[in-house]
Amino acid sequence: MGSPITLLYFSLAFILPLLFYRKKPALDPRLFIVLTLSIYTLLPAFWIYLVHDQSLFFYIYPNRMQEALWCTVLFMAVFILSSNIALKLKIYRPRINLNSNIILISAILFILSLYAKYQIFKMGMFFIEDTNSGLDEADIPALIAFLDNIYLQGLIFLAIYHSRKSEEEAAQGLTKAPLLGTCAARTLYLWSYLGTVLLINAAQGRRMGVLFPIILMVLLRYSRKELSRKNIVTVGASLLGIFLLITAVRLAQAFMRLTGDTINANNLTSMFSMLNSEMLASIGDGVVGRVGNPLIILTHAIEYFQTVSASTLPNTFFLAFQGLVPRVLWPGKPSLVVGNEVGHALGLIPASNMVTKINPGWIGEGYLNLGVLGVALAAIILAVVASLAYKAIDYKYDTGLVIFVQYFLLIFSGVQMEISFSLNNFIKSTIFSIFIVFIVSKMPEWSLMSKNRSGRLKPAAKELTD
User: Fold this and answer.
1) Phi, psi of 448 (to 5 degrees)
2) pTM of this prediction?
3) CA-CA to 70 of 20 to 30 Å: which in 91, 150, 330, 349?
4) Is the per-residue pLDDT at 27 higher than 60?
C-alpha cells in the first residue's frame, strides 16, 4: 500500500493548486475539482492508511493503492491544465429570467411528484432499502420514474426565482411582490416546499436527496456573495452532520429489515444505545465505503486492467457520445448505466445479481477504458465541458443560475458516477432547464391573489426591471 510518506506527498498534490489558485472563486473548475476530489479521495485515503484498510463495508487492493493515488493526482493535474485552456474560449451566455408563473408551475410539479411517490410506495419501493426486497427499479413505469423526483426541478426554479426577486426588491426598497401578496408569503411558500422535500427524502433514506436542496440554497447565497469563508466551513460541517444522520437512518432501515422488525422510536433508541467505539468505527467504515467509493473502486479497476487479458466491458467513451442521440431517434440505444456490468467484471457482485450497480467514478472508468491514458482522456473531456459551462454562467440571470446549479452537480455529484451518465445528465438537464425558463419567460403573468368582476384572473403587476 506504500508508506505513510506517500500520503504526505498525496496531500501536497492537493495543497499546491489550492495555494496557486487561492484568489480564484471557490467554484472555479480548477479549484472546485481539487475540493471535490479531496472529499472523495484525500479524506478516505487518510482513514484507509491510518485507521482501517479493510472492513465489512469496503475492500481495497493494498498493492494497487499507491498507483490509485497517483492516478488521482494525474487526473487532477490534467483537469486543471485543460481547464486553463478551455476557460480562454468564448461561449454564448443565455440571459433569460423566470416570471411569477413559476410559483404555480412548481406547485404542479410538486403534486405530480407526490403522486409518483405514492404509486412507488404502493409497489413497495418507497424506501431506499426496499430495493433489496426482490423488486427492480426497472419494474417502475417510465412515466412514474420520471415524475418521482421532478419536484426537485420545481425547487430549483422556485429558489432561483425567489433569490433574484428578493434581491431586486431589497435593492429597490420594495416590500410587496405581485404574486402571493408579499415577499414574506413567497418566502414562506419556498421554505414550506423545501421542508417537505427534505422530510420526504430523509424518510426514504436518500442522502443526496436531503443534501442537494440544502446545497442549492447555499449555492444561491454564494452566487449573491453572501457567504464568507467562515460561513462555508460552518455549512460544510452541518452538511457532514446531516450526511452522517441520514447514513444512520439507512443503517437502521437495513438493520430492521434484516431482523424483520418494523422501524419505530423504541427500536431506534435500542439500536443507538448499543453504540460503542467499535460500532462507531464501523459507522466510520460505512461512511468511507460510501464517500471513498471512487478511490476504492479505482484500486479494483487497476487490478482488473492489469490482470485481465480481455476486458468484457464496453468502451464507455464511445457510450458517452452515443448517449447524446435521443432515444426517440435511436430506440435501440444502449443503456448509459454500466454499473451492473462493472460490478460483475470486478467481481464485486455475483453473476446472478442483475440489480446492484457499482459506480466506477470518473477516474476508475477512465482507467478501465485505456489505463493511465484513459484517466488523462477522461480529465480532458470533463474539464472542457465543466469549464465551458462555468464560462456560460451569468449570475444576474436565471438561466445563468440554472447552469450554475447543473455545473455544480456535474462535478460534485458526477465525479463518483459513470462518465456517460454524468455528461448526458448534465447536457440534457441544462438544455431542458433553459428551455423551461425560456417558455415561462414568454408566458403572460397572472395574479393568483385577485380576480376581476368577470371571475377571470387578471394580469399581475409588471415585473421589476431586470
Assistant:
1) -90, 0
2) 0.81
3) 349
4) yes
